[in-house]
Automatic annotation (TrEMBL):
Gene3D superfamilies documented for this protein: Aldehyde Dehydrogenase, Chain A, domain 1, Aldehyde Dehydrogenase, Chain A, domain 2
Keyword Ubl conjugation: no
Stated name of the protein: Aldehyde dehydrogenase (NAD+)
All copies of domain Aldehyde dehydrogenase, residue ranges: 32-494
Family classification: Belongs to the aldehyde dehydrogenase family.
Keywords in alphabetical order: Oxidoreductase
Taxonomic superkingdom: Bacteria
GO molecular function: oxidoreductase activity, acting on the aldehyde or oxo group of donors, NAD or NADP as acceptor
Active site residues per record: E267
Length: 503
């Protein structure tokens, strides 16, 4: 039987070929479009508009006008709060539809789309969470340092026009992590979804309009990194770029921001370790957690997946056996089939890249214990690679150092705690880490020494109110919680003598 997503495409409907600028849907000025090919079937899903430089100019100008008008940035807090809450509820009402659109976009199975971290419900909670900051984050009133009758205050003001650039792998959550704090702070936005997850984001935008967002406050330019993303990150009238994606593009954004010293927030890649100590409460569960994150759901195309398992030699064989057992249970296919729990790679370029890393792993002497191949049969027209586990990996080797963004786990043995910490930190990335131990003191001792932004001790979950982001080359700044809201504000200091003598 040949896989097809065509019936779902017809029943869900798609917003095709449209940008959203200054409150109007319309095609790109030069009529350019992109045809999205489904990663599981290779079918043409639909066409969307490719914005040109002139469209990006119009979108930025609309966002600037909306910002200067104050219709959102200076509106009553109650108005902003109620729009954000109304939107959160609309998202929840449309969760099934959005999950289906995501399956058409990136082939993330509907079964995984229900798991909290990547769900529409989590995105809705992020909007509810940030609605709560609208009337709570302010500046300070401080006593005058030099004494006397002098008023000294600081204010937080919206940063201005934000370019929000999304990756394809978790469009609901990442849309929310950028758009919610930016809107709560009073910014206006030009949003660029990934060219590999556009249709679900366009529907999210339609719902935001329905929730009552004023025209020009959010503008959407669709299309690939070049020309659309480049035009945005180099645009002189963009005040801040908020980006989630690869390290290479993150570096390009830092370069491009220099021209006008744009504010920049970057959520980039990782090579996050899981440290499995011999005293882990349950080695089988630790292996299942690690292998599940690397092979199920997004098929390892997740920034924070623990793609390096550092395992104590005493439990190494037990871990590997359990890891192989877990890998054997991963299912692929039609993303609308509730029995399917994993995804294909997003495109052919990524398929070739992952297969190239697998060959590199073998060539560098790692022991392939399972997988390592493209899947065939009825999956042959998709970009599927099965769960792949390499054992006896040198931490300095390519597959232990570079972000593969595929279902490839590198297992590295260690002998003691110091070695585990040294190996864990021996990477240019610093996004996350998992610890598996029953020793509470060890858990915190090791956590303090790891150079990463987020640590899960015997488990991990994404929460809307917690900061999330990376040390080292995994990013700049944090999403989630108060720090995210503040990242869309500028601090302004205002002072005033209270008597004429002080002037
Ligand atoms: P990507 O860097 O290829 O693309 C991300 C976005 O940038 C897309 O919208 C793309 O069109 C755009 N882009 C590409 N070139 C551009 C340019 N020159 N200027 C401006 N924009 C440009 O990444 P991807 O494949 O979509 O996502 C995978 C990457 O994202 C991985 O590295 C992953 O680790 C990272 N990621 C990080 C987090 C996090 O929170 N830290 C979350 C999800 C994904």
């Amino acid at each position: 039987m040949t896989l097809t997503v065509q019936p779902h495409r017809e029943s869900l409907g798609l917003k095709t070929g449209q940008l959203y600028i200054d409150g109007q849907w319309g095609p790109a000025k030069d009529g350019a479009t992109w045809t999205h090919q489904h990663p599981a079937t290779g079918e043409a899903v639909g066409d969307f508009a490719v914005a040109g430089v002139a469209d990006v100019d119009s979108a930025v100008a609309a966002a600037r006008r909306a910002f200067e008008s104050g219709k959102w940035s200076n509106s009553r807090a109650g108005v902003r709060i109620s729009v954000l809450h109304r939107y959160a509820n609309l998202l929840r009402e449309h969760a099934d539809e959005l999950r289906g659109l995501q399956a058409l976009d990136n082939s993330v199975p509907v079964s995984f789309g229900s798991i909290y971290a990547t769900s529409v419900g989590a995105a809705a909670d992020v909007f509810d969470h940030h609605a709560g900051w609208v009337d709570k984050v302010g500046g300070q009133t401080l006593p005058p340092y030099q004494g006397g009758d002098h008023l000294a205050m600081s204010f937080r003001e919206p940063i201005g026009v934000v370019a929000a650039i999304l990756p394809w792998n978790a469009p609901f959550l990442l849309f929310a992590q950028k758009v919610a704090p930016a809107l709560a702070a009073g910014c206006t936005i030009v949003l660029k979804p990934s060219e590999y997850a556009t249709f679900s984001v366009l529907r999210m935008v339609e719902l935001l309009i329905e929730a009552g967002l004023p025209e020009g406050t959010l503008n959407v330019v669709t299309g690939p990194g070049d020309p659309v993303g480049e035009a945005l990150i180099t645009h002189p009238d963009v005040d801040k770029v908020s980006f989630t994606g690869s390290r290479a593009i993150g570096k390009r954004i830092v370069e491009a921001s220099a021209g006008t010293l744009k504010r920049v927030s970057l959520e980039l890649g990782g090579k996050s370790p899981a440290l499995v100590f011999a005293d882990a409460p349950n080695i089988g569960l630790a292996a299942a957690t690690v292998v599940g994150a690397v092979t199920m759901g997004l098929s390892g195309q997740a920034c924070v997946a623990n793609t390096r398992a550092l395992v104590h030699r005493d439990v190494y064989d037990e871990f590997l056996a359990a890891a192989q057992g877990m890998a054997a249970g991963v299912t692929y296919g039609d993303p609308f089939d509730p029995g399917v729990i994993s995804s294909p790679l997003i495109n052919e370029r990524q398929l070739e890249r992952v297969l190239g890393y697998i060959e590199r792993g073998k060539a560098e002497g790692a022991r392939l214990v399972t997988g390592g191949e493209r899947l065939g049969g009825e999956l042959a027209s998709g970009n599927f690679v099965g769960p792949t586990i390499f054992a006896d990996v040198e931490n300095s080797s390519t597959i232990a150092q570079e972000e593969i963004f595929g279902p490839v786990l590198a297992v590295v043995p260690f002998s003691d705690e110091d070695e585990a910490i040294r190996l864990a930190n021996d990477t240019e990335y610093g996004l996350g880490a998992g610890l598996f131990t029953s020793d509470v003191q060890r858990a915190f001792r090791v956590s303090r020494r790891l150079r990463v932004g987020t640590i899960g001790i015997n488990g991990f979950q994404i929460e809307p109110h917690l900061p999330f982001g990376g040390f080292k080359q995994s990013g700049l700044g944090r999403e989630g919680g108060q720090s995210a809201f503040e990242a869309y504000t500028e601090l302004k200091t205002v002072m005033m003598p209270l008597t004429d003598e002080m002037m």
